[in-house]
Amino acid sequence: MDENLKKIIPFALKFKSHIIWNVIYNVLYALFATLSFVALFPLMEVLFKMNEAVTKLPVYSGIDKIGEYGKQYLQYYITKLSNENGPQYALLLTVALVISTFLFKNLFNYLASQHLMKIKNGVLKDLRDKMFAKIIELPVSYYSEKRKGDVMARMLGDVNEVKNSFFLILELIVKEPLTIIFAIIAMLKISLELTLFVFIFIPISGFVISKIGKSLKAKSTKAQQENGYLISVVEETLSGLKVVKSYNAENYFKSLFNNSITRLLKLDNSIGKKNNLASPMSEFMGIVVIAILLWYGGNLVLVDKTLNGALFIVYLGLAYNILTPAKAISKASYQVKNGLAAAERVFEVLEVENVITDNPNALKKESFTDKIVLENINFRYEDENVLKNFSLEVPKGKTVALVGQSGSGKSTIANLLTRFYDVNEGKISIDGIDIKEIEMKSLRDLMGLVTQDSILFNDTIKANISLGKPDATDEEIINALKIANAYEFVKDLPEGINTNVGDSGNKLSGGQKQRLSIARAVLKNPPIMILDEATSALDTESERLVQIALENMMQNRTSVVIAHRLSTIQKADVIVVMQKGEIVEQGSHEELLAKNGMYSKLVSMQSFD
């Protein structure tokens, strides 16, 4: 059994009752699909007056003779009705019988499809649920290596492909094979010789179809990967639209997109060609067999006179009835290959090991009482250490600023404190407890993070600010906005705190977005605040307003400030000067200026980049 098939079974088993009912209705569908053709026989006999008069009710003599018993029973009633009411009533009865069998066949097909639909949609929801939970759980480091567009394609496109293609397996193993089996049983009853031709056709057809479908799964995987790349191009182009336009790079991105859709076109055409070949190929092979049956069976009826003409017509109907499920099997087997390729890509994400997780006996920590300590930390993103034997203490209630040139490892410390990444060697502890021993939720509850890029979501100001405290009242939100120096512009907006900020907050200026980010951290009210270059992207006026907001927020809090500009850090209790992952100086603003070292040099340049 295919590995991905095994992995999807637990998702399907949640809908066990729907699977059982689907199988029951498919069995009944297959039975009535055969009976609908068998019921044509008494109709033919009435029409062509070939039925023998049966004047006595037949006697049931066991399951092996049930076909003969049913035929005799029907002929008894046809004879009785013809004698009592004339041949029209007998004809009406047989027509009603044919209609009834076709009605039941289609009713059971509908009911089976209803249950299959519930399985497919239920599994789709559960897979998406699990996929989104996994995408959010995975550490930040995962997305520095992967294209977001590819992850989105797996979440949306591939999961959908699993839904559309994968559950055809239920049709492949129940509905279509049973339709064929029941039809063959009826055909064997009518003529053993003719049925041998059908047995020759099925394996030949199966062999030809499997040959065509051999390379389909590999091509499907390539197409799905290309689809992921395509979504990435669109996502990156839209995210960076201002840069694309300002550098007149539209043609470059158009060519990236066009090259991708051209590759996708070739793959889709190649897959489609094979898919499209399945149905006509199996139908043509079926018609060849029907033609042989017509010639051979016609001889049995007209020349040898060993086969009843009406039975021969019913037999042809049954033989043709095998073609539809045979076509469906060949087409479904192709689509299942697409589904398996998609399932592979879905489970690739679901099975990624999350390296940053809670220990089984992780502690809940609800307060911060003493200090944060970083001891002999080494950290590397790939091969080279970004932090080397780095040690630092942040006492409660103090503001510690980290300064230095780009690439000196400042932002890495923010990533390690929040456990977006884990240290390679050394240890970070809060109140003497290693942060790896603290439950991640409670660790992050202790911290507020304001980043250089003020990340807002396409929702109202209220929804954006109350992310860390969903039950906050409007009064609390307005209070947080006042502390963050943001209420002065929010109160003038058409709908106040219920104003939508647009995609990524693009309806607002950079300074306004940053003050809303600060308000979000203020409302959460954590004891530890981490400011990662919170003012570096702002103009002087916005920076002044944001700076006041930051000072309001940092009162009575422990703060780690990753600084870009001098103004942000002059009032810090301790300023740590970093270079290439190591501390070169530390002290207050005045102490460091007096040393006339690296800090003094940075101040004189008025630029901390």
TrEMBL record:
TM ranges: 20-41, 89-108, 165-188, 194-212, 284-303
Signal peptide: none
Ranges of residues in domain ABC transporter: 372-605
InterPro entries: AAA+_ATPase (IPR003593), ABC1_TM_dom (IPR011527), ABC1_TM_sf (IPR036640), ABC_transporter-like_ATP-bd (IPR003439), ABC_transporter-like_CS (IPR017871), P-loop_NTPase (IPR027417), Type_1_exporter (IPR039421)
Matching PROSITE patterns: ABC_TM1F, ABC_TRANSPORTER_1, ABC_TRANSPORTER_2
Alphabetized UniProt keyword annotations: ATP-binding, Membrane, Nucleotide-binding, Transmembrane, Transmembrane helix, Transport
Membrane topology listed for this record: Multi-pass membrane protein
A GO CC term assigned to this protein in UniProt: plasma membrane
Highest rank taxon of the organism: Bacteria
Residue stretches making up the ABC transmembrane type-1 domain: 73-338
Keyword Nucleotide-binding: yes
KW Nucleotide-binding (keyword) present: yes
Protein location: Cell membrane
Gene Ontology MF terms in the entry: ABC-type oligopeptide transporter activity; ATP binding; ATP hydrolysis activity
The protein's name in its UniProt record: ABC transporter ATP-binding protein
Species of the source: Flavobacterium capsici
Lineage start: Bacteria, Pseudomonadati, Bacteroidota, Flavobacteriia, Flavobacteriales
